[in-house]
TrEMBL record:
PROSITE patterns: TRANSALDOLASE_1 (PS01054). Pfam families: TAL_FSA. This is Transaldolase. GO terms for cellular component: cytoplasm. SUPFAM superfamilies: Aldolase. Its main location: cytoplasm. It comes from Siculibacillus lacustris. Keywords: Cytoplasm, Pentose shunt, Schiff base.
Amino acid sequence: MLLLLDTADVRAIARAIDLFPIAGVTTNPTLIARERRPLGPLLDEIRAILGAGAMLHAQVVAPDAETMVTEAERLRDRLGAGFHPKVPVTAQGLKAIRRLADAGFAPTATAVVTPLQALIAARAGAAFVAPYVNRVDAIGGDGVRVVADIVRLFDTHHLPTRLLTASFKSAQQVLGVALAGAHTATLAPDLLDTLLAHPLTDAGVEGFLADWAGAYGPATTVL
Ligand code: E4P
């Protein structure tokens, strides 16, 4: 499963890219608005940190299909290869996804919360669907189950659309979608750190260093 970062915070992106095997970035209007910066330069900076061609999923905000397509064209002119227009699974969004796919884009259908929305988006030509795991869990549903059903649907109907699973709040949810066969997960930077954190790991590393220092002094291997 590929790991993406779900943020528009350039410092967080630079740190995570340096440390972790990150394949790209997803943003949404809320994440962009949080940065309080002009959109163009912000996206340029994210593209520069990621490097040319890396996956960058940025969302359109217009309510109608025609303007969504125009927005996607402008974003592509700015962001180049690796740009995926994120389009919500509204009726107008589905129309835009179809037009974008026909025009050679690899669109991402976003705000997906049911398997049937995913199926329709895939039929419209979405390259990715983004099911929101925690938002389903938060209203008493089962987000991982939704993802598992989408994996099965795409498999059964031989659809090439991939799952860009999104909206996570816990490591358990991430493990659940990985086991269900999701192709990609996009995570907030702090959740990425949480995935690695474990008291047994910390205690183990501390113990190794203490034993080493007792025998050889400062913790460095000098051959
Ligand atoms: C998906 O691409 C969205 O940006 C995102 O994952 C939504 O997450 P949230 O439910 O934490 O806002």
